[in-house]
Structures are given as structure tokens and as C-alpha cells.
Amino acid sequence: MLNLFAAVAAPKMAGFAITGELLFFAALAGLAMLSAVGVVAFNNAVRSALCLVLNFFVLAGIYFTLNAEMMGITQVVVYTGAIMVLFLFVIMLLNLSAPALLQDKNDPKTAVGMTLGMVMFTLVALQVLPGLMSKTEPGAVDGYGSPVNVGRALFTGFVIPFEAVSILLLIGIVGSILLAKRRF
Amino acid sequence: MAEWYDNLHPVWQALIRVLLFVGPLLTMVPALIWFERRVLGWFQDRIGPNRVGNITFQKKDKWVPEFLRGKKIRLFGLIQPIADGIKLFLKEDITPSSVDKVIYFLAPALALFPAFALGATLPWGPFKGLTPVADVNIGVLWIMAISSLGVYGVVLSGYASNNKYSLLGGLRSSAQLISYELGMGVSLACIALSTGSLKLTDMVTAQEGPLWGVVPAVSNWNILTPHGAIAAVVFAICMVAETNRAPFDLPEAENELVAGYHTEYSSMKFAVFFMGEYAAMAVYGGIFATVFLGGWHMPIPVRWDYIAESQPMLSGVVSYFQWADFWMAPAWFLLKVWIIIFGFVWLRATMPRLRYDQLMSLGWKTLLPIATVNLIVVATWLLLQEVAGPGPALALSVCTFAALWIIFRAVTRLEPAKENFLPNREISMVEVKPAEKPEAPEAAVA
What we know:
The complex is a heterodimer of chains A (184) and B (446). Chain A has 184 residues and is mostly helical.
């Protein structure tokens, strides 16, 4: 345990050089972190949703820098382009605004929540970070996540889960049509 | 490519590629506005802006040189968009007091971003290294992804303006863009299937082959193949809807919504929306040209290489064409883009605006099924080609198409006859006889 903690607290910096790539990654990662904080920090629902959009977009940028273009573009198509638009749509239709009157100045929930969050973060970090510390590979191998490879994997090794998911989606579509097409 | 260019740092190379794309695009926007206004004028039997930039020299002024006296320099109003731009710069920039300020300022930028980012995978010439900006293996997906971001500018401007008409415009636009993205994506998927690649450069290369794999003298432009023609029509309609152009300009329908999502925007902020729309038009034109019209090749689908081989006595003439095909590629590409833009303007000049329910039923009930059927047919065709060879494959895919068509007709027949209008819009054109008239309210009171 102590060893692990030492690994987190004092990473071996010898292998790192400050390169343009690292700076670019730092900029993207910092933006992603800031926007992630913004999602929970803003009172205004639209601002939070926009921060989430930015977060997803920057994450896609990080995937691009790691040579995982397919992954990044899927992130943009699915989350930034489709799901977040629906989020915004709903927020605007409900006209959610900052609940000014319900704000409690000395809310114990904030402190408890932050503490629990930090504990959770530490637990996850202790599990994840030591394994990543020694990795210096700047990106995936060229063509690792290319559309061809992804398609081939989906239709050979993962064909049953893939088809199961597509049937699940079909059920979802049929269900939504049934709900929407109720006869009056 | 020149050696000095290859020796540059990749970042500088990328910067040059971006400038070579964005510079011409920005220059095209004013020209595009002038072109649209003049063509609209022509369609509507009026003159259009033809004055700004004309200089008439006086006949008897000592300051005018001899050879210029009484002469007139005509620019056909080409300076008009620049004059408009200056006007927009100098106008008062009004920010209404109750807007959501941050988002209000952010929205025009978000509307402009996708228009320029969209062309990142678009090749405008055969020059490797100079174009496209990023030749990644997800070219078509990139187009889908970035065009789906176009919603944000419109929705956020509608929301931030704190105006009910703007909000309605924004909501309409998000529904419209989401609906038409599907048809667009599926029609692009057909081409990606038949090409076997998502790269736009590969699509251009695939269109250099012989037509249908059979006619060696004609190049295989996707619009000349059966599935490509259907996909092209679907894509063209979706393209117009995605750029919010007439007849799909519901988000800014001025007779219902004042000016829709940009009602509260003035001065440069409005100009930025305007620029975004026109830049998107140009980029979508480029995408259409690349995917369906043979990309940067000469606008006649002839395979010069084959002709030079098969007709050696013509090789002298053909070599000129080959030279032009290669070195004048940006000009051909631009020519195709302008033809498509003319199509945009043509649509705007001739089609009345759609009603909202018509828009939705066109997108979901017409374009998406057609594109999906097309995709199934293309997939069947490709499979059969691998199994049975090209001849039977063509016949069988035609049969597939016929079968799907019959199923479609049968399913639509099963449904009860549709009302083509909303019931509350119904107006009885036959006069009601006095005897059948409902009782007057006074009688009820009495």
C-alpha cells in the first residue's frame, strides 16, 4: 500500500520530456478537467450542459491525438452531436433556470459530497494510476482503431453481442413509436 | 511536392494546408453573396445589385487622364458584398438587456465553426501534402460529426436571445437538422459501401475507374451509377436542409418567426451567422462534388488515360487534356462547386417554403426509407458481385430493388387513406345550405 502511494505521490519523471505533444495533451486534458468541473459547478442547467458538450469534444480531441480517430469521431457523432443536442432540447423546453430560492448557504450536503467524491477519486486513482505511470507510449499503433478493424472485430469476434445490441435498439425504436402513436 | 515543403516541420505544413483551404473559402463568401443576389435578380426578372464599384470618369475634367475621359469601369456590382460588410461593421451592436450574455456571444462563433471545420477532409486537388487538411481514414464520418455540430449555433442563439420567436426557430432547426442528418448519413453510407473506404481521397480515386466496371472510356462518377444517383438526390435535399436554406429555411421563416434564431442579433454578430451559412453552402457543394461528381477531375467524365492508350493517334491532343485535368484541378473543383451553388440559388428562387409537418414527413417518410432501401440494394449488389460476378449481380440487385419497392407499396396500401392536411386547417369550399346551418347563438339564449 505504501509503495502504491509512493508511486502516485512521486512519479518517476525521468522518462518525461516536455515536448509539443505533451503540452498539447496537457492543454486538452486541462480543458477537459475544467469543463468537467463546470458541469457540476454551474447553477444554470444550460451552462452545465454546454460544459458537458465541451468536455466530450475535448475528449474526442484527446482520442485524435492518440491515433484513435474512429473512437474520437464516434464520440463526436454520438455524444456531442446527438445526445447533448437532445439534452439541450429538453432543458430548453422545460425552461430550467437556477433555483435561486432553494439555495442553502450552509448546506452540509456539499461538504459530505465533496469528501465522498475525493475518497472515490483516491480509490480509483490508486487502482488506475500505478499501472499507467510506467507507460510512455504516445499513441496507439497506426490503424489500431481504424474503421476496417473495428468493423471486422464487430462482425467476427463480437457478432452475437453486436446483434443483441441492435435488437435492443430496435425494441427501443418500436417502443417509442408505440408510445408516440397512441390513438386518441 | 517541392523539397522545401517536405523539409518543413509538420506543424507548418498543416498550417499551410489550413490556410490554403480557409483562405479561398473566406474569399468565396462575398462572391457567393453577390452571385446569389444577381442570380436571384435574374430569376425574379429584376436587375439585382449591379452598381457598386462602377466608376464613370468625367468628360471635361483636367485631373482625369486623356485616355480615361468619358470611360466607364464596370465591376457588375462585385463590390456590393464588401459595402454590405462595411455597413454591418459600422452598425450599432445592440445586446438586448435580458439575454444570457455568455451564450449570446458564443452562439455566432459556434454557428461559424462547423462551416469551416467541415472541409478538413475535403481534397480540392491531386496535390498530396497540400490537400486535404487531414487525410484521415474517417473522412465521411468527420463530415457527419461536424455537420451535426451545426445545431448548437442555432439552438443556443435561439435560447440565449430570450425571445419566443428565436426559441421557436432554434427548436425547429434542431429538429430539422437531426431529421435530415439521417438521410444524409445513410446516403453517404451507400457511397462508402460501394467505394469500400471512408476516405474522401479514395472516393475520388474510385471514381476514376471505368463506368459500372464496363464502359472503359467513361469514368465512374457516382452520380452516373444507379445507386449513386439516388444517393445524390437524397444527399442534395438533405444538404439544402442542413444549411437552413430555402425551401427549408423554417428556422428563420420571416412570415412566422420575425427572423427566427437571429432576430436579436445585429451588426457583426448577424454577419457572422450569415457568413457561416454561406461558407457551409460552399463546403457542402465541395462535398457533393467530391462524393458524387468525380471530385477535382475535369467536369466531363472521360478517362483520358484509356483514350490515350486505345487511340494512339489522339494521344497528342489527349495529353493536353491530361495536363489540364491534373494542373487545373482546383479550377475544375471550383467550377463544380459553383454549379452546385447555382442549384442552391435555383431552389431558393423557385420553391416555396415547406410547412413544418411537410418538412418532417419528407425527411422521415420519404428520404430516409429511400436511402435505406438504396443501402440494402447496394449491399446486396456488392455481396452478389463477390459471389456470382458482375452480370448476375446487376440483375439480381435490380430484382431486390423491385421486391423492396413492391413491399413498400404493399405496406403503404395497408394503411388507411391519409389526410394530407391537418383537420383544423380544413376549409369547406362548398357553401353550407341555410337549412343545415347550425343554430345561431341568440336563438339558444332565447
